[in-house]
Structures are given as C-alpha cells and as structure tokens.
Design goal:
Elements lengths: L6 H20 L4 H26 L8 H14 L8 H23 L4 H20 L10 E2 L7 E2 L2 E2 L6 H24 L1 H11 L1 H6 L4 H27 L1 E2 L6 H14 L5 H18 L5 H15 L3 H14 L1
Antiparallel strand pairs: 1-4, 2-3
Amino acid sequence: MSVFSSKAEKVFIYVFFFIALGIPLFFYENTFYVNKVSTMLILSIFVMSLDYLVGKTGLITLGHAMFYGLGGYLFAIMVPEYEEVNFWIYTFYIMVASAVIALIVGFIVLRTSGIYMIMITLALAQMTFYFFADSTEFGGLDGLFIYIKPETSIFGLNFLDLDNEIHFYYLCLLSLLNCYVFFKITLQSRFGRVINAIKDNPERATALGYNIFHFRLIAYVLSSSLAAYAGYLFALQYGFVNPTMMAWDVSATALVMAILGGLGTVFGAILGVFVYESLHYGIEHMTQYWMFWMGSLIIIMVLALRNGIAGLIEQIAVGKRK
C-alpha cells in the first residue's frame, strides 16, 4: 500500500526530501541557512499536525499553539537544570505527558463544535499563555532556558550531537519524514476512513454506530502530541522556551500556512510553511512595510488558489497527463 494519494504528491515528496538532504552540504560554511531551514522543518511538523486536525477531522482550533509551547515547557520543567539527560527517554516522557494533557483538554473542547470550539480553544490557550507569562517560577515572559542539550546515545552508541547544527538539521528532517508517514498511514487506515466520514457527515456516521466523540478525541490527542513534539524540537534548537510560543497568533499563522499549502493534503503543510517563511524572509529584508505587502500577497494567493498550492500542483499534474 502506497502512502501517496497521487502521483503529484509522490513526486513532490521525493524531490523535497532529495533537495533537503543536500542543503547542509550546500550551506556547510553558512549555518544560518541550515538553522533557518531546520526551523521550517519544525514548523512543518506543527502545521502538519494542525492540518490533520482541521483538514481531515474538520475541527477548527485557535489554541493549537498551546501544545506547541507546552512541548518546550515540559522538557524545561522536567529536566534537571545543569544535568545532561537522554534525548530518547525524555522524548518519550514529553509525548506521554502531552498526550495525557491533550486527553483532558479534548474531553472539554470536543463537547463543543464550530464557533464554540474556536472560542473555547482560544480561551484555554490564552489562559495557559498568561499562566506562564505571569509565573515567576517559570520565568515569566522571559521563559526558561535550556543550558545543556540532551545526549542521544543508544546502548552506549552516540550518533547525534544536538549542539551540531548539521546533526540537528537531519534530526528535524527525519522527524518530519516520520510524522508525514505516520499521518498518511493513519489516514489510509480504517480509523482515517472513519474520521473522514465523520467530517463529511457526522449524523450518518453516528447512525452507522460509530462513536464520533471517541474518534475525534483520538485524532485530537495524536495531533496535539505531535504539536508538542515540534515545540520540544524548537526549544532544543534555540535553547529556551517562552509564553509567546503559545500565543493565539501562532495558531492563527499556522492555520494560514495550512490553508495556503492546501487543507487536508498533509504535504500541503510543508508547502505552506516553506512558501510563507520564504516570502516572510524575502519581503522583510526588502521594505519596512513588509507586514502590509506580506498580508496583501497572502490574501491574493488564498483567494486565487482555492485548494492551496498543493491543489495547484495537482491541477498541473492532471493537465499534463491529459
């Protein structure tokens, strides 16, 4: 069974990862661009997790960044301040802890839908933001610093050095690939077919005997846990975590990236992040009014590409076959 939904998606994924593998070799002496792309890879995991929730499950949230920030905070809180810990063990701890938190939050927010769910997820995210922002124990607005990055040994063998930008880049790339394959496999499984059916016609899915609350809760937990993993990687990259990672505008920007790339396509999340961040970087260095031009360009692109950039690629591929 192929994880690809179309030939166009298959070609894009192969080309993208082939180019991504060579980026550190091309910019070996200028790690600024390696770090920049690493950030884009992390954001791609975050946006992909949101796309999974919005595009495939039909649950719109403005509080997804809460889990993005929690991933970093969980690590900063759990790890002893000046002690080197094992990356794999603490990754497991963070994924379990974030899944438990997502399960509790999901029981609350999934009792609502539509505009009510948007409001309650926004409220919970802002509550969490102000909790950490006003807490001196957790560093307030300055956040918490990670002084020593984890070591990555397995049975005494160490293959990665997280202080090395190139090593960290390939960890992010591998993480993105794993998340992409994981989402595609779940979406092609019986579970994926059910959540698609629930999104299209929840009444009919209920009439067929499916407990839509349970399926939505599982999707919510999976999505939120991987958002937390992305935040954990972000904290490791920059060595700190602060409340701004949880702000509502982070969720809103991620939603714009998902829409720009193509909601519900999964690979569109990668497209959305790289196009958005590239435009942001380019326009920001061209004019001091970059926010106006950036916003105008995004509006035009979203209106012109109703199915996102991924939809445009699919249309071009279909046109060429004809």
